[in-house]
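Uroporphyrinogen decarboxylase (Nesterenkonia aethiopica), 423 aa
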Amino acid sequence: MASETFSGMAASSPMTAPVRTSAVRRAQAQAQAGDVLPSDHPLTSGVTAESPLLVEYRGGRDAAGDPARPGRRPVWFMRQAGRSLPEYRALREGTSMLDACLDPEMAAEITLQPVRRHDVDAAIFFSDIVIPLRLAGIDVEIVPNVGPVLAHPVRTRADVEALPQLDDDAFAPITEAVARTVEQLGSTPLIGFAGAPFTLAAYMVEGRPSRDHLGPRTMMHADPETWDALASWAADVSGRFMRAQLMAGASAAQLFDSWAGSLGRDDYAAHVQKHSAAAFSHVAGLGAPLIHFGTGTGEILDLMLQAGAKALAQGVPGDDEGVSGGSPSPVVGIDYRVNLAEATRRLGEQTPLQGNIDPALLTADWDVLEAHVRDVVAAGAGAAGHVLNLGHGVPPSTDPEVLTRVVSLIHSISPAEIEPTRA
């Protein structure tokens, strides 16, 4: 539920192999050092630990690991902080996307806007997956109606070897924005995020958005050593980006793999999965729930689960694969293409799920949308935990009143009303 603190706010208010090895060693050293969240962190202090969102992310368990159910069904929306909100458009007028992300006061306010308006059960940090590139000194911009555009694509071994190292001090505007946000959220958790290595590397190779991602798909076969070095660099900066957000106060983190659906199953397993696991390894020992989401990834859901599970299993004796009961299960985000009951059949009932209302139905008649939301709730009821979300991001044209109404509907549905759907 929305916290007293929040609800009382005023509305105005190189690389080659050596670089890859160093990145892996850094992550391993962090794990071996017994990294823990600060004592005043919302999770360790208990402020967000028993929130509905985290209970479901843990697979229906409280902070002590005992079976529990939240007081209401948790819901939040990818891209809930964005162009669908008039207050967002007014605040960002005249400010570029990446400049807004790096202005701590503005980023915090944008993050808070949808929580204030919709009463969702989490805030998702307002940023962009290419922010680590900008912080490293790479010339990248978000071009309106295009997306991320790099001045100098990364396509050769020399290009990869020339990539800059990202200094931890560069995350200062991120950690300040997170701290400002959690100070006002109270018991409502903040979710941090980063782009998955494949998606980030795909932008770097293509230099801009692509329909088929031929560049990175070709590189992983034509020059696998260069691909591994690039994906390792991307995994390192993305993992550290997530870590900076978690250490500053985020209570969970999500790895977005927007373009992994362009890959065949064999290519993902051979050339991508290990890099996603490496990104997760930067945050696996912190005790915060981790979510893995991709679009068009129905055929690799189990491999995405394994990528997160292997990272979470670090330090758990006898659970090297991360798929037994010895370590927590990552949450798997499901896009609108796969029914949640089928996802549970593929991943097992022990796997918490997130999703997957079809964004296309947000403009349908209310009776149609309500029936669809209820179907999604029923389809997700067989999983150990289920957090409602869209099967992709909020479209910019969405009427925000519809989102508010969807949140109210989800919060009103009691467990007794729902008969779980079976695949």
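The chain has one domain: 4-417. Strands lie at 123-124, 140-143, 147-150, 190-195, 252-257, 290-294, 331-333, 353-354, 386-387. ok done for today
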